[in-house]
Amino acid sequence: MSNEQTPHGTDTTDTGTHRSGFVALVGRPNVGKSTLTNALVGDKVAITSSKPQTTRRAIRGIVTRPDAQIVLVDTPGVHRPRTLLGERLNDLVRETLAEVDVVCFCLPADQKLGPGDRFIAEDLAELRRGRRGPRVIAVVTKTDLVSRDAVAEHLVAVSEMLECDDIVPISAVQGTQVDVLLDVIAQNLPAGPPLYPDDQLTEESRDDRIAELIREAALEGVRDELPHSIAVVVEEVVEVDPDGDPFAHVEPGKGRLTVRASLFVERDSQKGIIIGRGGSRLKEVGSQARAGINELVGRKVHLDLRVKVAKDWQRDPKQLGRLGF
After folding, report:
1. Which of 137, 168, 260, 266 has the CA that lies 20 to 30 A from 129?
2. Contact 310, 272 (CB under 8 A)
């Protein structure tokens, strides 16, 4: 994943050199990593939710500047796993940290440092003991939610807990210091050419982004235990005849774009919650998801959404594989 790594401690601030590399955003669940990813990219490449552990894959957002190309990897929140899915998500974070050039460790200003933060800090310290360890930027997020004095106290606490190369307070929601963070990230990257085309914003496939938009819509307004049980698979995206003839030949872009997707839960009772009385909840999910999908593909789509039960899929290796984990 990474370019040839600059040994830790080497000066990387030569402004005449183009820089590129991979940057992992890590932290406990619900610390604002996905919101920050979208703010840095300037577009929605990662779904966001008030529910913790929303991110399940290492999502790459790409920021291209004249002086640097920054490939952001938004990782799942590190947590104490209670399922096989949780174990795999934590393993994904550790694998990502070992391969990137820079780590942005996100620590929300409105929450005291806790055991989860110290666990990640210890992992980073272990990585940095090796000559090729990543450079580390502590990012104090959600500064808009607390006073300046509270931010200052949090910055001191973070600096005492973690040995890092830089520390930057930001508010991704308000856009405060986002540009400063981009500058700091770029300065810490190794020299190298662009890794992706200038106009590419993400490495996520269209179908993966569609699935995530559906899951984002399904996450809103559900019970606390349900979000972790929701998975979405896009079965197909096809052009169909606008008059409904299943045998008609349809030229690309001339028909009606239909997205067929399955929304999986773990129990029949959860299926009822997602569908709602008379299908009302599922209609809301479809309407919200369709708006995002329309914007993503640049045209109106028909969303055919089915809810299915995959019993205890978070703990079943075979079903995790079928669902892409």
Report:
1. 168
2. no
Going by C-alpha positions, the residue among 205, 258, 201 that lies closest to residue 235 is 258
Q: pLDDT tens for residues 38-48?
A: 899 888 777 66
Give CA–CA dist 249/255, Å, rounded.
9
Given 3-state DSSP classes, what are the helix, strand and coil percentages for the chain, each rounded to the nearest 5? 35, 20, 40
C-alpha to C-alpha distance for 307 and 39, rounded to whole angstroms:
32
CB 230 within 8 A of CB 265: yes
Q: Which residues contact 175 (CB under 8 A, 6 or more apart)?
A: 39
Q: Using a cut of 0.70, tell me whether the model's pTM lies above it.
A: no
How far is residue 183's CA from residue 61's CA, in Å, rounded to a whole number? 16
What is the mean predicted confidence (pLDDT) over 295-319? 87
Strand 231-240 with 256-265, pairing: antiparallel
Q: How far apart are CA 11 and CA 32, in angstroms?
A: 29
Question: DSSP assignment, residue 8?
Answer: T
Strand partners, 304: 260
